[in-house]
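Lab manual, section 2.4: Encoding a predicted structure.

Procedure: take the sequence of the chain (238 residues), apply the prediction step described in section 2.3, and record the output as structure tokens. A sample record is shown.
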Amino acid sequence: MLKSIFLRFSLPILAISSICISNAYAQQRFSAGPRVGLNLSNYWGNADNMSFTPGFTAGAFLMYSSLNHFGISADVLYSQRGTRYDGPLFVSPGPSNTIDFRQRVNYLEIPVVARYFLTLAGNFRPNVFIGPSVGIKLNAKRANAELNGVEDDRFNGDNSNDFKDLDLGATAGFQLNWRAGERQRFLIDARYTLGLAEVQSNLPNIWGRRESLSNSAFTLTLGYGFGVGREYPSRYRR
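Recorded output:
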């Protein structure tokens, strides 16, 4: 009789405990993979005579998704930023001359963002995201310089000392996320990153004194994610 009573009470308790444990862990999932894409970058602030210029970006990401609505991800990216300048030359031989060149600043970019998934589960899980981004300067250089419409190599070359070593920013965007195979997903990310700090360290540059100059970049990347570690089925069916 005692055995019968014990079983009568223990089985429901075990069932409830199992459900609770399942719900706690069924939502955990990690994925990681490569990412490659295009930057379209410029500066904002006192950015007269500057325009957007394309650049390359590539790296890897790690993403955690709770498989309800929330997740978090971090990227490590090689990111080409900069601008195209076409305006007055503010160093010798004087501002009566015009110069056209591309300014490239290469960063190791590390964005960490919170994600909100628009679907609870399934083959298509679009999401929106926002978070901080840190850029660690690798190098900088001027290229394709033309003085008064004529190529002039005197202005080309490394100018890494003109830019600060760290760039702090905020990034936001959206992602399209499709199931592409067993524990594999194809990702399209579109984001905008706004620099929150002055990028120049050595003033004035040959484009003159600019007290407020910060990064501004649109980025489109393609990625491929692979499940990492144990995967638990979601309790959601929609």
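Check your result against the sample. Residues 158 and 212 are 22 Å apart (CA to CA).
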